[in-house]
Design a protein that fits this description.
Layout lengths: L2 E3 L4 H11 L13 E6 L2 E7 L9 E5 L2 E8 L17 E9 L9 E5 L2 E7 L8 E5 L4 E5 L1
Antiparallel strand pairs: 1-6, 2-3, 3-8, 4-5, 5-6, 7-8, 9-10
Protein name: HSP20 family protein
Pfam families: HSP20
InterPro entries: A-crystallin/Hsp20_dom, HSP20-like_chaperone, Small_HSP
């Protein structure tokens, strides 16, 4: 497997937020929906971050753990009376464990239209390759 999706406490956090307060508070990271798929020689991960400024996005890779953090700030002024506030605000955070077959030194990131897209190349050693099998009678190739 190229990517291991790990948020062991995500469901617990969701239930806790429903019981104790709204999501998106400064003290508890809110969920960040994502898609992940392989496209050719890259693994692509897309995160929905609408309303987040690119400057607030922080990406960090340490020991094959990718951490994505972003913050959506409140835009209400001091003299505003809010009638409805349902959009999550505060810190958004997500961690992914990346497999050894991904090249974490060459991750590319792009943020456009509220979607953060990461392209993570598959390492050369993880790509399919042909291996030549020699025999005394003939030489033929097989897929590895």
């Amino acid at each position: 497997m190229m990517l291991l999706r790990t948020d062991p406490f995500r469901e617990f956090d969701r239930l806790t937020q429903q019981f104790f307060g709204s999501p998106g508070t400064k003290t508890r990271p809110a969920a960040m929906p994502m898609d992940a798929y392989r496209a050719g020689d890259d693994y692509v991960v897309e995160f929905d971050l609408p309303g987040v400024s690119a400057e607030s996005i922080d990406l960090d890779v340490e020991r094959n753990v990718l951490t994505v953090r972003a913050e959506r700030e409140t835009r209400f002024g001091d003299d505003v009376e809010v009638s409805v506030s349902e959009r999550p605000r505060g810190v958004f955070s997500r961690q992914l464990f990346l497999g050894d077959t991904l090249d974490t030194d060459r991750i590319e990131a792009d943020y456009h239209g509220g979607v953060l897209t990461l392209r993570i190349p598959v390492t050369e050693r993880a790509k399919p390759r042909k291996i030549t099998v020699g025999s005394r009678d003939e030489t033929k190739q097989i897929d590895a």
